[in-house]
Write a structure and sequence with these properties.
alpha/beta, Rossmann fold, 3 domains, six-stranded mixed beta sheet, 49% helix, TIR domain-containing protein, transmembrane helix, transmembrane, membrane
């Protein structure tokens, strides 16, 4: 069955409409691929999952200020890559809400159920088009995943980026060769073969033509800028604009965050019970997302999430097994981790991360590092590893950058590097 990138609102007002279109899609043999909400995202992650889908269906609903700029950005990603798209648009939105060249069907917020025959027919036409569309362009198979850096920044920044990606993100890294004596086809071949690109933007320079080609070809791109005065495009949400890197000391933390976002998975929901749980979960959130939302959503969909009374919070079927896993990891790796020294370095790391933190997700990581330091001071190795696993790659990048080697080694053990 075709897997479709399903772009939609997460607001409580739109929950019934989104659930309706999701059910209608599945009844026509179309599988929606969903991204559980979180407070961080980037364009590379969206492009990767778009590339892994057969097409896009978007539900564009009205907001007080027009419509969601996030969904419009997702549509732009699909359109510039020539991707099959079908948009369901609320009938109160203007005629130019999306390009007239994109297949679209209107829906009424109050009477969408009566419009089901027209919506179903639009889905059937779209499915028939997908079935007649040839596969995408040829990409060589069997190669290790790769990251290509477009050299439009100072050499020291490019070199530091390449070293970090090769060591910590574990990609084969290359810097785009733009020499005049190279074959004219080579840069385009390298771009199309890359798993992800890293580029550097600057307000004072036009976009490199090869970066533009990568964008048009739909290659997932992580955009950075070393320009503190970089001017953001006013119509594009900040999450999809270049991330500021003031110098090589900030680079590990920014790269760790961006690659972690890029590699996050979407959900392909084929089981109606899982869809119902997910829909109820979104409604109950009331738009309040934080760094734990994605993990909770995964547990809800898998049926591993149970609510218990009192202060214990939510637990899953695998909670005890996870604790046993950290006990086993500690027994195997604990001998080479000096807990008192680790506690001291984690406190240094906590202060550094607190200085760098700019989002709620960052604040949550700072809290986990603090809890890990306390556990290390108590001599509780398994709890220390459990906390460090939740801290993730951003903390690892910062620990490496500031020279806290014991903390970096412990985080690697916790996250399975």
């Amino acid at each position: 069955m075709p897997v479709l990138y399903f772009a939609h609102s997460y607001r409580e007002r739109d929950a019934r409409v989104v659930d309706y279109f999701g059910r209608l899609m599945r009844s026509e043999g179309l599988v929606p691929s969903l991204d559980p909400p979180s407070d961080s995202v980037n364009g590379a992650k969206l492009q990767r999952h778009l590339n892994a889908s057969d097409g896009m269906i978007a539900v564009l609903s009205r907001r007080e200020d027009g419509t969601s700029p996030h969904i419009l950005f997702e549509l732009a990603l699909a359109m510039r890559a020539g991707f099959p798209v079908l948009v369901f648009i609320e009938d109160t939105l203007p005629n130019d809400a999306v390009s007239p060249h994109v297949p679209q069907q209107r829906f009424s917020y109050r009477s969408f159920l009566r419009q089901a025959p027209a919506h179903r027919q639009a889905l059937r036409f779209f499915k028939a088009y997908l079935a007649s569309t040839p596969p995408g362009g040829y990409v060589p198979l069997g190669r290790r995943r790769s990251c290509l850096i477009v050299q439009s920044a100072p050499a020291r920044l490019v070199d530091a980026t390449a070293r970090w990606i090769a060591q910590y993100a574990e990609y084969e890294v290359g810097v785009l060769d733009q020499r005049a004596d190279s074959p004219p086809w080579r840069p385009f071949d390298e771009i199309r073969s890359a798993s992800v690109l890293v580029t550097f933007a600057s307000s004072g320079q036009p976009r490199d033509h090869l970066t533009g080609f990568a964008t048009a070809a739909g290659v997932p791109t992580i955009e950075l800028t070393a320009d503190s005065g970089y001017r953001h495009h006013p119509a594009i949400p900040d999450e999809y604009q270049p991330r500021l890197v003031r110098g090589t000391e900030e680079l590990p933390g920014v790269l760790a965050t961006e690659f972690e976002l890029f590699e996050q998975d979407f959900l392909e929901l084929t089981d109606q019970d899982a869809v119902d749980r997910y829909t109820s979960f979104l409604v109950d959130l009331e738009g309040d997302y934080d760094s734990t939302t994605r993990e909770t959503a995964m547990e809800v969909v898998m049926g591993d999430k149970y609510e218990v009374s009192g202060q214990a919070g939510a637990v899953g079927r695998n909670a005890r097994a996870k604790d046993m896993t950290f006990q086993q990891v500690w027994q195997g790796e604990g001998d080479r981790l000096d807990l008192p020294r680790l506690a001291g370095e984690l406190e240094i790391l906590r202060l550094e991360l607190k200085r760098q933190a700019t989002t709620r997700e960052h604040d949550a990581v700072v809290a986990e590092i603090g809890a890990a330091a306390e556990a290390a001071e108590r001599g509780d190795g398994p709890e220390t590893l459990s906390r460090l696993q939740r801290a993730g790659k951003w903390a690892l990048g910062a620990a490496t950058a500031i020279g806290t080697g014991v903390a970096a080694a412990a985080i690697k053990v916790a996250i399975g590097f």
